[in-house]
Amino acid sequence: MDDVVGPHGLGQKNERGERLVEWAQRNEVIIANNWFEQPPRMKWTWKSPGDGSRNQIDFILISKRFRNAPLISKALPSADCYSDHVLLMGKIRVKLRKQKRQNPILD
User: Fold this and answer.
1) Which domain of life is it from (predicted)?
2) Separation of CA 102 from chain center
3) Which among 1, 5, 44, 83 would be 20 to 30 A from 16, CA to CA?
4) What is the pLDDT along the chain (107 residues), one digit of tens a residue?
5) What are phi and psi of 50, to 5 degrees?
6) Domain count, the chain
7) Which candidate, 3, 92, 6, places its Cα nearest to that of 56?
8) What's residue 72's pLDDT?
9) How many other C-beta atoms are found inside a 10 Å radius of the C-beta of residue 94?
10) At a CB cut-off of 8 Å and minimum separation 6, what does 61 contact?
11) How far is the first Cα of the chain from the last one, in angstroms, to the nearest whole number?
């Protein structure tokens, strides 16, 4: 589980969170939100009606193949999107390499 979920989550995992972690392990993806240390105001992604509680329920999932690509991931609570959910922002580093083409052997 340590290779899927980072140490910087918000709150406790419930049954749905455990199922997400199991799914991520089976499908070889990581949960990018939890790998970056952020203040709590930059972690919560959902606000309950009446502003009673705030939870981290939206995630950025990335293939394990690209686990070094994310540079940062955070919530943007100041963005006004008329929803109880908050926008997520992530920066990734992409390095594309030209593939070497093999010539077919002609007989």
Assistant:
1) Eukaryota
2) 36
3) 83
4) 567 887 777 778 788 888 988 999 999 998 888 888 888 787 778 777 877 787 787 888 899 888 888 888 888 887 777 787 888 888 889 887 887 777 766 55
5) 80, 5
6) 1
7) 6
8) 84
9) 6
10) 24, 29, 30, 31, 32
11) 51
